[in-house]
Design brief:
GO terms for molecular function: methyltransferase activity. This is SAM-dependent methyltransferase. One of its GO terms (biological process) is methylation. Keywords: Methyltransferase, Transferase. The chain is of the alpha/beta class. Helix 5 runs parallel beside helix 6. It has a 7-stranded mixed sheet, with helices on both faces. Helix 4 links the parallel strand 2 and strand 3. It has a single domain, classed as 3-Layer(aba) Sandwich (Rossmann fold), CATH 3.40.50.150. It binds S-adenosylmethionine. S-adenosylmethionine binds next to helix 3 and strand 2.
Length: 218
C-alpha cells in the first residue's frame, strides 16, 4: 500500500503514468510469447539507484536497454544517469504507447540523458545495437524466452566484443534461481559481487538481483 502510494506520488511529481500492476491477458501483444510474459510491475526509484551503485560509475557512452520496459519507469530512472542512449523493448502495444507519452512529458531537473526510445517488439526478436551495453531485466518472462534473448546477446558480443553488463532482478517468481546459472553457463560473463537489496518502502516487492560483466575470451 505504502509503495503504491509512493509510486503514484512519484508519477504526479514527474507528470507521468508508471504506477500499478497490469496483467498481460487484456493487452494487445506482439509476437508468440504472450503466455510466457510476466505482469507489468515497476522497479522502484530506491531499488534502481541501489542497483546502479553496483555498476562502474563511468558508463558514459553505454546504451541502457530495459528488456520488457513496461510503462517506462526504469527508462525514466535511467535517464538521470549519463548514458549515451536508453532503449526500452516492450511487446504490449498499450504499454508502449503509455511509455512513449511518459518519455515526452517526463520532467526531472537531474535528467542527464534525453535520447530515450521504446521499441515495440518481442524481446526474443530484438537485435542488440553495436554499442557498449547495460542490459536490464526485471522479471520479464519465463526461462525459455530468456534463453533466446541471452543467446542473441551472446552472439552479438561474439560478433562485436564490447563492454556489456547484465543486471538481472527478480522478486516473486524467484527467476534469479534459473537466470543466474543460465548467465554463468553462457561462459562469457563474470558475476560481480553486490550487496543484498534492502527492503525499501517504495518497492512493491523487494528485488533479488545479480550483476554480470562480459569478459571476452582471451
Ligand atoms: C515486471 S515488468 C518490468 C517493467 C520494467 N522493466 C521495470 O523494471 O519497471 C515485465 C515487463 O516485461 C514485458 N514483457 C514480457 N514478455 C515480453 C517479451 N517477450 N518481449 C517484450 N516485453 C515483454 C511485460 O509486458 C512487462 O511490461
Amino acid at each position: 500500500m505504502v509503495a503504491d502510494r509512493l509510486a503514484r506520488k512519484w508519477d504526479r511529481r514527474h507528470d507521468v503514468d508508471t504506477a500499478g500492476s497490469i496483467q498481460l491477458a487484456a493487452l494487445d501483444v506482439v509476437g508468440p510469447h504472450r503466455n510466457k510474459g510476466n505482469e507489468a510491475v515497476c522497479t522502484s526509484p530506491r531499488t534502481f539507484d541501489f542497483i546502479m551503485k553496483s555498476l562502474p560509475q563511468d558508463l558514459q557512452g553505454h546504451t541502457f536497454i530495459d528488456i520488457g520496459s513496461g510503462k517506462s519507469r526504469t527508462l525514466l530512472l535511467a535517464s538521470r544517469y549519463p548514458f549515451a542512449e536508453i532503449i526500452g523493448v516492450e511487446f504490449a502495444r498499450e504499454l508502449v504507447e503509455i511509455a512513449r507519452s511518459n518519455i515526452k512529458r517526463f520532467r526531472d531537473p537531474s535528467q542527464k540523458c534525453r535520447a530515450l526510445s521504446v521499441v515495440e517488439a518481442d524481446a526474443a526478436a530484438y537485435e542488440f545495437p553495436d554499442a557498449p551495453l547495460v542490459v536490464y531485466f526485471y522479471n520479464p518472462f519465463s526461462k525459455d524466452v530468456f534463453d533466446i534473448v541471452l543467446k542473441n546477446l551472446v552472439s552479438s558480443l561474439e560478433r562485436r566484443p564490447r563492454n556489456c553488463f547484465i543486471v538481472y532482478g527478480s522478486s516473486s517468481h524467484r527467476a534469479i534461481d534459473w537466470a543466474r546459472p543460465a548467465i554463468r553457463e553462457a561462459g562469457i560473463f563474470v558475476e560481480l559481487s553486490v550487496p543484498p537489496m534492502p527492503g525499501f518502502l517504495d518497492a512493491i516487492r523487494t528485488i533479488d538481483y545479480a550483476v554480470f560483466q562480459f569478459r571476452a575470451a582471451a
